[in-house]
Write a structure and sequence with these properties.
The chain is mainly alpha-helical. Helices cover 62% and strands 12% of the residues. A two-stranded antiparallel sheet has the order 1-2. Helix 2 packs across helix 4 (58-70). Keywords: DNA-binding, Transcription, Transcription regulation.
């Protein structure tokens, strides 16, 4: 039977794997970087400011945003008809601290 400490480590390992999976695509890394520099941005702004390594449809960017949200890296809030995105700083702090412990 696993101890509470072992279960906590397993949960942290799952969280790390989810975050790493979210960051495993270069477009998602670019999106995270953009949102860090432009908190409160909307998906159309992200689409317009993606590097020119190919056109990125809004639906594709929206899917990338979903993965980042599911990993806990991004949060959203509704501003009328727009959904604004910002980085969850607690997740970045957690990631940095967890990686330092490895």
């Amino acid at each position: 039977m696993a101890t509470a400490h072992q279960r906590a480590l397993e949960q942290d390992d799952r969280r790390l794997a989810l975050i790493c999976k979210a960051l495993s695509h270069p477009v998602r890394v670019q999106i995270l970087r953009y949102v860090l520099r432009h908190p409160g941005c909307i998906v159309n702004q992200i689409v317009l400011h993606m590097p020119e390594d190919g056109p990125h449809a809004q639906s594709t960017i929206s899917q990338h945003l979903r993965v980042l949200r599911e990993a806990g890296l991004l949060e959203t809030y509704d501003d009328g008809a727009a959904v604004c995105h910002y980085v969850n700083p607690d997740s970045l702090v957690w990631l940095r601290e967890y990686l330092e412990q490895l």
